[in-house]
Amino acid sequence: MLFGRKKALGDVLKASLLWLALGFSLGWYYLFTYDGRFVWPMPAPEACAGLLLYYFSKLNARPALQIVHWLLAFPIAGVLWVSILAVSAPFFGGRRAEYGWTVWRFSLTALPLALPGPVLAFLAGRTPGGWSWRQMVSVAQGRGGVTPGAWLTYVFLGLAVACLVWQILRYVPIFDLRGKKAGLHLLVCLILLAVMTCGLATLVAVPLRMWLG
């Protein structure tokens, strides 16, 4: 039993690192494209939930704290999303899957969106004299600018669709739900995710703004 709990905890920690990488990548994407233009939201559930969690609990704090706040939003959103799926699946006739294993398998579907992160970090640190860590940090904190081509939005949108398709392909064998039951389960879970994310963000925003805002 103890070994099983340690393994489940290890799976959740590994999954959280992948969702941190997702937040890292999406952070650069939104930073690069935030210039008043319309930016496509990412259709993967945990990506959307991470955005909701961040913006509903947004801090008026120094840039470094805002970056940490942003990054932490995505592992929380990812764990919340898979937890809702795993807990509710048996009520729709689905399989009761092992929790840690399920979280880890679902987190792997974030890989396509996480992969561009290091590339965008490299672009942020470019200077006429070569790559600079100081320049990258300056851009990350909003004190410098990078203007990518319109291709960036289409690349991220395509990768997000790949994440979503991969997640659906994971969903079916893990929970053994198909057709109308699967559709109803996913719809209910998405509604619960939106409500719980906004509620959680609103609750944590008050103490965070008191202490850090």
Characterise this structure.
The radius of gyration is 18 Å and the shape is globular. The protein is an all-alpha fold and 213 residues long. Strand 1 and strand 2 (130-131) form a beta hairpin. It is built from 9 helices and 2 strands. Helix content is 74%, strand content 2%. The protein has a two-stranded antiparallel sheet with strand order 1-2. It has one domain (17-32, 40-211). The mean pLDDT is 86.
Structure in a nutshell:
The chain is mostly helical. 74% of the residues lie in helices and 2% in strands. Helix 1 crosses helix 6 (116-124).
Order of helices and strands: HHHHHHEEHHH
Taken together, the total number of domains comes to 1
Q: Quick check: average pLDDT?
A: 86
Percent of residues in helical segments? over 70%
Instruction: State the secondary-structure class.
Output: mainly alpha
Low-pLDDT segments, ≥5 res? none
Task: Identify the overall geometry.
Answer: globular
Attribute tags:
two-stranded antiparallel ribbon, mainly alpha, 213 residues, globular
Fold topology:
Layout: H1 2-33, H2 45-56, H3 63-88, H4 99-107, H5 111-114, H6 116-124, E1 126-127, E2 130-131, H7 133-140, H8 151-175, H9 179-211
Antiparallel strand pairs: 1-2
Helix pairs in contact: 1-3, 1-4, 1-6, 2-3, 2-9, 3-4, 3-9, 6-7
